[in-house]
Amino acid sequence: MTVRLGLIGYGAIGKHVEAAGLENIELVSVLVRRPRAEGLLTHEPDRFFAHKFDAVAECAGHDAVRVHGQRVLESGADLLVTSVGAFTDTTLFDRLLAAATANGQRLILPSAGIGALDILSSAAVGGLESVTVTVRKDPSAWKGTIAETLVDLDSLTAPHTVFDGPVREGAKLYPQNVNISAAAALAGIGLDRTRVVIVADPGITTHIVELEAKGTFGRFTFMEDVAVSEENRKTGKLVAMAMVKSVRQLASTLVVAA
After folding, report:
1. Domain range summary for the chain, segments of one domain joined by +
2. Chain centroid, CA 81 distance in Å
3. Distance, CA of 150 to chain centre
4. Shortest CA distance to 193 belongs to which of 207, 218, 162, 214?
5. Which of these, 83, 139, 196, 239, has the minimum number of CB atoms within 10 Å of its CB?
6. Bigger pLDDT: 12 or 121?
7. 169: pLDDT confidence band, cut at 50, 70 and 90?
8. Is the per-residue pLDDT at 168 higher than 70?
């Protein structure tokens, strides 16, 4: 079986998916934001959607989910969303779920930059009491965000918490940085009950994510310390690797940790 794939976005994630050259995955077209018409790339949505896809992977940010998500599902393709923070907008989430149901397609939220979603979603079956996601990145990763209005990022000498509260609010305030918290929330107890702590830490050069959950199953903690993407300091290298894995599984006979 060959899966015909479309990509929305051609940055730190999209380029790696293309470069992977996955078996039984045919990359058909790539939709980009700026005017380009080279190879598989196009900036014209109508030209992109003129193709027939089995699945489309979004790797371009919240706006791409809002603008193109429903059209993907209505075109008869599954939609893989990396910018899960877009679903802090409940209306958008419900609209895409309805489109997926009406057209017999799937809305897929890949693990992307965070692990342990399999454990978390399993624990949610029996009942979760609390989930906290802590995201720590060096100050440069928070440039261009609301954090710049809260603290002088260039002069930080100690870790500084720039947000502590529900994921629905945190993922909306930091749309490029903490999509992982939204994925954890949707896997567990929801966007309003899941807590996210966002820290600018001048003492690290990596991205550190910690997840703690408690429930009827007991308690578990998870921590990852990942290298930063050369293309985009707001994201980790693991995000692109995980997306390659998710795309590969679309056409794989063996699926591990589905």
Report:
1. 3-111+240-249, 117-235
2. 6
3. 25
4. 214
5. 139
6. 121
7. very high
8. yes
Mean pLDDT within 18-39: 89
Q: Tell me, what amino acid is at 159?
A: P
- Do the Cβ atoms of 6 and 28 come closer than 8 Å? yes
Q: Same topology for domains 3-111+240-249 and 117-235, yes or no? A: no
Structure tokens at 124: 């949610």
Give, in degrees to the nearest 5, the angle at Cα 82 between 194 and 225: 65
Which position has the token pair 């992109």?
A: 48
The 10s digit of each residue's pLDDT in 47-85 is 999 999 999 999 999 999 999 999 999 999 999 999 999
d(CA 241, CA 160): 29
Query: In 3D, which of 46, 42, 106 has the Cα closest to residue 76?
Result: 106
For residue 208, the cross-strand partners are 136, 225
pLDDT tops 70 at residue 190: yes
How many residues appear in the chain?
258
pLDDT in tens, 199-220: 999 999 999 999 999 999 999 9
Is 195:167 a contact under the CB 8 Å cutoff? yes
Q: What is the DSSP string of 186-249?
A: HHTT-TTTSEEEEEE-TT-SSEEEEEEEEETTEEEEEEEEEPBPSS-TTSBHHHHHHHHHHHHH
CATH classification (class only), 117-235: alpha beta
Helix H segments across the chain?
14-19, 45-49, 62-74, 90-103, 117-126, 167-173, 179-187, 237-249
Side by side, which strands form the sheet with 55-58? Answer: 41-42, 25-31, 3-8, 55-58, 78-81, 107-108
CATH code of the region 3-111+240-249? 3.40.50.720
Nearest one of 168, 10, 182 to 112, comparing CA atoms:
182
